[in-house]
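Quick review question:
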């Protein structure tokens, strides 16, 4: 008798004694079980390199690629964050420079406006003064003319009133 057969007999004897004592389930342990175990082991040995190892390799490769893709995505996200910070910093500098230039242009415009206003005021004052001088000259000429004409008119009026000519 072989070792396996004696083991099988020992298990069945023990199972019979247990069944009678407590009403447990009867387990048949015979050579078919051993044959099934041998076939199972053979299948494991044959299928492991043919099926299990390639499938497990695919799973590992998928994990590596997934982890690699996640790491690449994190790296790209960090680079995008850095680029965004640089962009915002540069944009802030551009805004600052634009504000400085705008203020400088406003100051220059205000200065030019003040100069033009002063020039316009000077020209207007000059024109007003020339007009006043011309008006004063015309008034003086008119008064002089009135003075000359008033003597003649007075003689004509007196001559008409008196009816004779006055010398």
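Suggested answer, residue by residue:
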């Amino acid at each position: 008798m072989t070792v396996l057969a004696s083991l099988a007999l020992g298990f069945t004897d023990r199972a019979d004694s247990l069944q009678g004592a407590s009403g447990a389930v009867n387990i048949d342990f015979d050579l078919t079980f051993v044959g099934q175990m041998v076939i199972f082991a053979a299948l494991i040995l044959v299928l492991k390199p043919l099926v299990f190892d390639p499938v497990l390799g695919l799973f590992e490769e998928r994990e590596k690629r997934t982890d690699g893709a996640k790491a690449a995505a994190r790296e790209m996200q960090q680079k995008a964050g850095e680029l965004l910070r640089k962009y915002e910093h540069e944009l802030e500098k551009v805004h600052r420079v634009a504000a400085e230039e705008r203020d400088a242009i406003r100051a220059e415009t205000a200065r030019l406006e003040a100069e033009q206003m002063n020039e316009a005021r000077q020209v207007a004052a000059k024109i007003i003064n020339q007009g006043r001088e011309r008006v004063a000259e015309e008034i003086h000429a008119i008064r002089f003319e009135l003075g000359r004409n008033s003597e003649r008119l007075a003689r004509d009026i007196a001559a008409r009133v008196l009816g004779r000519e006055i010398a």
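Why it works: Helices lie at 3-22, 31-162. The two ends are 190 Å apart (CA to CA).
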